[in-house]
Structure formats: C-alpha cells, structure tokens
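Supplementary Text 2. Reproducibility record for the structural model of the 457-residue chain.

All settings were left at their defaults, and a single model was retained for analysis rather than an ensemble. We include the record here because the model underlies the residue-level annotations in Supplementary Table 4.
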Amino acid sequence: MNREQEYSKWMEELENNIPDLAPAVERARQRKRKAAWVYRPLVSAAACFAIFVLLVNFSAPVAGACARIPVLRELAAAVTFSRSLSDAVENAYVQPMELEQSQNHITAQIAYLIVDQKQVNVFYRLDSDVYDHLAADPEVLNEAWERPESCSYHTGSFDTENGALRSLTIDFVEGTVPGKLRLKLKVHSNGSQEAVEAAAPDQQADQWDVSDYTPNYLAQFDFLLEFDPEFTAAGKIIPVDKTVELEGQKITVKQIQIFPTHMRVDIADDPDNTAWLKDLEFSIQTDNGMTFEASASGITATGSENSPTMTSYRADSTYFYEAHRLELVITGAQWLRKDMEKTWVNLKTGETGPLPEGVAFEGAEKSGNIWTVSFRGECRKGEAMYQIFGHQFFDAEGTAYEINARSTVLGEENENGEMTYFLEKFPLRNYSDEEVWLSPLFSHTWTAEEEIRIAIP
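Retained model, structure tokens:
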C-alpha cells in the first residue's frame, strides 16, 4: 500500500465509522473562531522570524472527524492556525512522509508535507530520551546546496514539547517550488545544562550582546524532500489589472493567485504616491456568500528590494471551494510617508521628529558604548504588539548600523482587561552620538469610510 492509498484508507475510515458527526459539526460551525497569541522578547534579529501560535479553534469538520484517528487528529491540530491548511487536511491534500534520522540520542522525523506551486509546509518531530525542550534552527537549500532565490521560511513551533508535531513553512516569493529541497535541522536543547550555561551572560557582560552566542548544537540532520509533481503544479493565476485610490494614493491590483495552501493579492503602487503601502486590510468574498480573510499569522505580506511597498498580500484560499466570482473588499491600509523613511531622535534631550501614529519616545540610557532606547506604542484591536522600527539606524552622515536585538513587553490593562500599550526597547551598539535617525516601519493607518470593492474576473 503506498502513501496515497494509506491516506485514502484513513479518510474512508472517517466516513464509515462516525455516523453521528453531522450534529457535532453543525454545533461546531456555530462557534465563533478565536485566536490567542503569545509573544516573547526577542534576543536576536533571527528570532523575528518565529511565529508564536497558542490556540485557534479547530476547523469544524476536521476536529470532529479526526477525533477517532490519532494520526489525523494530530495533523489537524498542527494546522489550526491556518484555515487553508485545515481545508487541505480535510480534503486529503497531504503528502505523508516516512523520513527519520537519529543522532546523539535525538531522533528527527519528517511526517507530512502540504505543498503547492508556491509554498512547502513541513510537519516534523524531534524527540529524545536524554534532552528536554528540543529546538531546531532550520536551513533550506536546493539540490546544489545553495539557498533558493526569493525564498523565506518561518516556524510555528516555539516551545513545542518533544515528540509533538512541529511546523515549518517555506515560501517562494517569485519563483516556484522545485521538485526537491534539502532541509537541514540544527538541533539544540533549551532545557539542557549546556544551553543554560551558554545562554546565561556573565554578570559583567553586555545584556544586549548576542554577537558571540552560538547555540550548542547537539545534532544536525539533513533531509532530502521530494515533492509529488501533482502537488507542485496545483494553483492558478487570475489577472485583474484594476486601479483604485486609497486615501489619495493609487494602487493597482495586478492579479490574484490561488493555491491550496494560501491566496495572494499582488499589487503595484503609483510612482507619484506620497506614501508607501505597508499593509492592506481586506477580505475576499465569493458569489455564494463566503468570506476569506487576510492572513493573520505567518508570512502575511512580502515586498521587493527596490521599494518599501509591500506588494503581495496573503489570504485564506478559495481553492477547495466552488466559487464562480470573487470580489476583493478593501477596508483599510497602513502607510509609510515617503518623508518619514527616517526620523530623527535626540537621545539626550528626548526631542524627536515625526513618530508613527500612536507611538511616543519613552527615553534613552547610555552604558559604555551602548544607547538603550525605548518607545511606547498603543495596542491595536486584535494586535497586542507590533514592531515599530526596522533593523537599521543611521548617524548624521548617513552611515548605517544594525539593530541586532530587541525586547517587546506588554504594559497595563484597562478596566476591560485589554492591554493598552507596550514598550519596544533595542540597543544602539557602538554608538556614541547623541542624535540618531531611525527607520519607522509605518507612519499611520487609514480606515475606509465605505468598503472599496473590486470585482475579480
């Protein structure tokens, strides 16, 4: 029996062995979906790629049906952060894998793939009877041992217990998923004595200095992932080429890309715009009354090296649903004014140039050759914390420096138990000047008075 036949057998068992599923499914459909997020201060720039998903209700058909089959139940639980991946599991759009390697009392297993033209979602396990709290730093290479062009990836497996299913998403911005990829997993233990000693700074050391920290890797695994051509061919592109005006700025919706794992809305901005588009609030509606929301986790948008504008936005996919007509509904946007790509701060006096909407300068302290700066940001509805500034700062001559660490912590709650603000802190290392130019990630948000609707052919 091959993997596809085995999966089909699982799905047949679901249909034959659960006669009372319909009432439970209907009750589950009535529940409102809720998402809870957990954030953690970043100790390095690399940590910005971690996506922390704590809890999202199961997709109703998957949750009810998979309760009787542990294997499918586990996979269903691993994809609940994404409606599209939940739909893929429900529709048996999964490539089971049986890859396993062991090294130094640690076992790594690649269990499942969910793949299409533009994205690879890897589900794997790490286990050990010696080390606790295993974690892996992934690296994705092509068959020639090179980093694929226009490729990014992120993990949703922060603090995953040993033996539990973990996820890794590999996203191709421009190119398409090849027939094969190499996945390297460099494994360390957050709970081992070696890791604790390596992570604990000397009392005299700089608390922000992560330049010399390298995890004590306990094992390194190298898997060759081969993809079913039927999966990597799945997807379609719908040309749109319609221009709309948002708060006086013009954008052109170029095309919609529909894949099993996600949907993409590709846009282009007008060179005469006075602001860069940094985020788009939208949904996709179908002619049969269904709504597909913009992605709220993982990679939500991508841009290009030539412009600060974010040019491709991710959404839940209509791929597994019958829809003859689609409509893009825009309700808001986030902008970065072109005159705010850099903003000035006097670290000694507290004077600043224009700051992003809802942001205030809290202060700066100097210790040795490091300034530690702090900004206060208003919590947004549905988004407790967000990044305020980019990874570069500049001196008066325009010389660029890197911000290689960041800490973000929540502030106080209001009478309704909602967080009202957060603090973003980061070091300006090896910097002695009293003036600095920072790189805001946005200037302001905009909400449409009326929905802007664009028919998709």
